[in-house]
Amino acid sequence: MNLAATTLLHRGARARGVASPLIAATVLLVSLVGMALPICGAEPVPVNVRTAPGRFDISAVDATLAHAVSTVAEETWRHLAGVLPLPQGFSSPLFVRVGVGETGSPAFTAQSEPGGIVSIWINASVVTRPAIVRRALARGLLLRLGVAWYGADAVRAIPPWLELGCALWVDTRELPARLDAIKDRTRSLTPPALVVLLNENREVARGAEYEVSALWLLTFLQAEALEGREWGLFLRGVLHGTPADEVLTAAFPGRFANVRERELWWQTGWHHWSRMSALPMLGSQESAREIERLARFVFAPDHEDVVVPLHTVVEHAADVIVAGEFERRGQELQRLIPVLHPYYRNAGLSLLEVFEKGGAVPGQRRAAMVVAFEEDWRDGVTIEAAAKAALDALERSRR
User: Fold this and answer.
1) Under a CB-based contact definition with an 8 Å cutoff, are residues 316 and 359 in contact?
2) Of 133-137, 172-176, 314-318, which range is least confident?
3) For residue range 326-337, what is the model confidence (pLDDT) as tens digits?
């Protein structure tokens, strides 16, 4: 299986790797000039930051704001790729603008425009509050997905529960302790009626009860979907503007016979997921994507991206650029290890060893560590395929 992940591209104050020493020097020069501007009393220079192609194009009058939003945008895309059927990139990116609003301005707005463009405006005053930024980006991604499916004129509004549920989904995976806090809060709450949760308008969709209910509904509907089919049908329906309770009946056949049974179905799901004592864990496919992303290196020696195999990169682990990238990726992988799916946890641990020890051991040992990672990766793929085949066979036997 090909390993797929992020590229070594400059991302502002925190470099994610560069293609050559010349680029590194250029980045350093730009950074020094940027530090000098406030001293000279010059006006801030507008900054444009782009994530991966077809994802986010972020502009701000302050580089710090632009790069802060860029970091949250990358996290949001990464975590929601396992929830929403996001492509590698859209035909046009989401255009994010960070600006200073007037008194009484909203925290953010998101809207579709002619030509399939989706634009997000974020008030600079909320950039230091990632939860709000995630919600703005979640609304924008849902809009962009709907536009890709149905066109700009067909997508009117995003259901508040879906937007908030997606934002909290990212929160609880980026900050696992957040899930514990939400579960503690849930114990003192009563699940709202499903029809109210699905159809609440944005003006009244507020409060702790609504917030946690949105997360549990998102979690519950995905868990109820067989191989994602029902969830995909439901998502397409609500983004097209069909009343959510109507789409629910069509997308999840056989789960309930009437409104009363539907309410029991939902309330049972609420209590089940809110009381589960298991730690949050990534699914097998999401775990595989995370490891693929971290194990893939792309350089641009002649202004053209080239994928460099891990066993080649590790030979240069002592180089400043590679060592810095190994350190950054190792720190990110350390946070992921506790939530990786068991199929891929050994691969995660062996890749972490490459990042942490690659520059401190002899060349032969480096090569052996890469081989160990590749073997653990293949084992994970094999185990996942075998488990899926066994479950499919069991499902067929029950029909």
Assistant:
1) no
2) 172-176
3) 998 988 888 788
120 burial level (CB within 10 Å; 0-12, 13-18, 19+): buried
Instruction: Please write the tens of the pLDDT for every residue from 308-318.
Output: 999 999 999 88
Residue type, 243: P
Three-state SS letters, 340-378: CCHHHHHHHHHHHHHHHHCCCCCHHHHHHHHHHHHHHHH
> Residue 218: helix, strand or coil by DSSP?
helix
Strands 94-99 and 47-50: unpaired
DSSP character at residue 279: P
Return d(Cα 64, Cα 395) in angstroms, integer.
52
What is the three-class DSSP state of 187? coil
Closest CA to 141 of 102, 168, 110: 110
Q: How far is it, in rounded angstroms, from Cα 121 to Cα 140?
A: 10
Between the alpha carbon of residue 147 and those of residues 59, 159, 274, the distances in Å are 22, 15, 33
Instruction: Tell me the DSSP string of 75-133.
Output: HHHHHHTTTS---SS-SSPEEEEEEPPPTT--SEEEEEETTTEEEEEEEGGGTT-HHHH
CA 341/CA 377 separation, integer angstroms: 12
Confidence grade of residue 3 (pLDDT, cut at 50, 70, 90): very low
CB atoms within 10 A of CB 163: 24
Higher pLDDT, 65 or 299: 65
- 3 state SS of 302: coil
Q: 60 has which bridge partners?
A: 47, 98
If we measure between CA atoms, which residue out of 2, 151, 170 comes closest to residue 75? 170
Length of the chain: 399
Which token pair is 368? 């052996």
> Residue 144, SS3?
helix
Query: Can you tell me the distance from the alpha carbon of 194 to that of 186, in angstroms, rounded to the nearest whole number?
Result: 16
Average pLDDT over residues 29-48: 51
